[in-house]
Design goal:
- By secondary structure, the protein is α/β, with parallel strands linked by helices.
- It has a single domain, classed as Vaccinia Virus protein VP39 (Rossmann fold), CATH 3.40.50.
- The strands form 3 sheets. The protein has a 7-stranded mixed β-sheet with strand order 3-2-1-4-5-11-10, with helices on both faces. It has a two-stranded antiparallel sheet with strand order 6-7.
- Helix 1 packs parallel to helix 5.
């Protein structure tokens, strides 16, 4: 399933390539592609972060946003060579101290173990992971002794709801405990239409890990959790047709902040 997802994301990189000029302008001006809630969780990194690692980094805009927030060095890891080629082009255009590594997140190189002062991931990354325990073990081993882990991700409950024609929430037929689902094509609010027809695109496998599964995996890996927060922030602009009074009624995203194994919270 990871191999299939890699092929699908190589195809989706076409859309990211269309944003290249916009990404160069954003990063070169000192801007950030991160959500305000993410920036609040991460904080000012100047003088506090020698190395930030971003897992499942895609085209690099979010990774280089960490540099603009003050990280001395950023490392992005992704399994899509086409996405990483875009990230390297972006790095060359803005002159950032960035390194890009092609690898499945479950096989993150051990050379990075214990080096992340900030370990960041999220915004649609966990749904493509098929082994949450191995993922959590990677989180635990990458953190430096004083490192912080920040995750901002779509809430699994979001999969249970859609928006009716009147702008109000209705239940979907998604099974919260179903596991991975196979599909072709992308939701326009997530990845806009590609030149390749939906039926000709690679099959991909996504799943909504429950909050219990994510938290338990991190705890069992030894990550010391400081905070779990649920948000009504629409992380991928997929519910723009919901009425304003409806938007705050269900959690659309969540965040986790943690510390390296064995380190007490400040």
């Amino acid at each position: 399933m990871h191999a299939a997802n890699r092929q699908a994301w190589d195809e989706a990189a076409e859309r990211y390539e269309g944003w290249f000029a916009e990404a160069v302008a954003l990063i070169s001006s000192g801007g950030s592609n991160l959500f305000p809630v993410e920036e609040q969780l991460i904080g000012d990194l100047h003088g506090r972060c020698r190395r930030a690692i971003h897992l499942q980094c895609a085209g690099g805009r979010d990774t280089l946003s960490l540099w603009n927030l003050g990280a001395d060095e950023v490392i992005g890891l992704d399994f899509s060579p086409r996405m990483l080629d875009l990230a390297r082009r972006l790095t060359a255009a803005v002159g950032a101290p960035a390194t890009w590594i092609e690898a499945d997140v479950l096989e993150t190189p051990h050379a990075l173990d214990g080096t992340a002062d900030l370990l960041y991931t999220g915004r649609g990354s966990l749904m493509w992971v098929q082994d949450i325990d191995r993922w959590a073990a990677v989180i635990a081993r990458l953190l430096s002794p004083t490192g912080r882990f920040v995750l901002f991700e779509g809430h699994p409950a979001e999969w249970l709801f859609d928006v009716a024609e009147d702008g109000r929430w209705i239940a979907t037929d998604y099974d919260y405990f179903a596991g991975p689902e196979a599909s072709k094509g992308w939701e326009p609010g997530y990845i806009d239409h590609l030149s390749l027809a939906d039926d000709d695109q690679s099959t991909k496998f996504a799943r909504a890990w429950t909050l219990g599964e994510v938290v338990t995996a991190l705890l069992q890996a030894g990550v010391r959790l400081e905070r779990l927060t649920e948000h009504n922030v629409d992380w991928w602009s997929g519910h723009g047709d919901a009425l304003p009074e409806e938007r705050g009624r269900i959690p659309l995203s969540f965040s986790i902040v943690g510390r390296a194994p064995g380190r007490p919270a400040d």
